[in-house]
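A brief tutorial aside. Many learners find it easier to grasp structure tokens once they have seen a single protein encoded end to end. The record that follows does exactly this for Serine hydroxymethyltransferase. Read the sequence first, then the structure, and try to relate runs of similar tokens to stretches of the chain.
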Amino acid sequence: MPVTQTLEADVLRRQDPELAEILLGELDRQSTTLQLIAAENFTSPAVLAALGSPLANKYAEGYPGARHHGGCEIVDVAERVAIDRARSLFGADHANVQSHSGSSAVLAAYAALLRPGDTVLAMGLAFGGHLTHGSPANFSGRWFDFVGYGVEADTGLIDYEQVRALARTHRPKAVVCGSISYPRHIDYAAFREIADEVGAYLIADAAHPIGLVAGGAAPNPVPYADVVCATTHKVLRGPRGGMILCGAELAERVDRAVFPFTQGGAQMHTIAAKAVAFGEAATPAFRAYAHQVVAHARTLAAALEAEGLAITTGGTDTHLLTADPAPLGVDGRTARGRLAAAGMVLDTCALPHGDARGLRLGTAALTTQGMGDAEMERIAVLFAGVLRDDIDGRQAREEVRELTGRFPPYPG
Ligand SMILES: *Cc1c(COP(=O)(O)O)cnc(C)c1O
């Protein structure tokens, strides 16, 4: 298969065996452990081929038809295809596909709509807000005045009346909806109404669910938000990168906020790979995939709950779930370490109640590998067994190896 061919290519082996070894080692790690990190996926060999193409050589500052460099006639076509496919996939008037990452997309959205010092209402970091939603360690927290909303301690759900009350009190210039760990659908209509009530822009940071949106398995923020920021590498299964969707009236402001305000030359190999991923995401097979990802997350949540873990909101509508392992007598950090030793790779995350860290899991990568409900149930048993210490870590590691051996992410 192309991936191993690329990695084993004699060229890299001969020229730089040290790096060839590292790349193959990482392929082996990804193929023999369970990728439960909710933000990860296995992109296709076609996407990897575009990423490894000579488009990586091309300088292309500006936009198709208006570049600061010569020789852009072919990459212009690639970017136009990416834009058209994104617009049609998400029903957006305008798409900017140049953002280097999800965070750069959010930076550009703020640059398009806000001035330093403006007030922004976003989910608090302790409840699942992203770094770009006002962390003091991030540009967002330094340049804007963030007010955080939370989730209800008992249900784990967004309290829309609290969001409305905070908006009325603080009169933000923008309201941000989107999270790194919220397992339920977001009510974009409710956020739109709140933003309208106080004359704020609505920015949807749909980095996580955008792949489900593409597959019709989650509500589309495009009809509601002024600007939608997203990544292309999570459930959407494209290359690492970002994009921005908006209406025609903000198109020019958004484009100028990406280039020249926050970025230089576009990464044309990544843009071509985004186009390939958008093409894949428009197929019936991807639609089926997106629905399976959600079904598998529900199965995994129910199976972990049956094993005694406390599942935030009691389940999920999406590809991710968050769980408190405390009922099994172990804290989130210890749990992550023990699971990693057994070949189950995942993140800790904030939980709605208290300061204890929970666990965040997703099913996007497992589903791409072809795993199904039976595997989710088996994984839940292993997972809880390792945490309870009834299953020896080494034995679990062997079972994970056997399981992943049956579902290679890159067969051959
Ligand atoms: C993943 C994520 C981002 C950032 O994406 P990067 O590509 O890592 O910069 C931003 N916002 C949210 C809500 C995310 O989940």
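Self-check: Residues 39, 101-103, 106, 130, 132, 178-180, 205, 207-208, 231, 242 surround pyridoxal-5'-phosphate (CB under 6 Å). If you spotted this yourself, you are ready for the next section.
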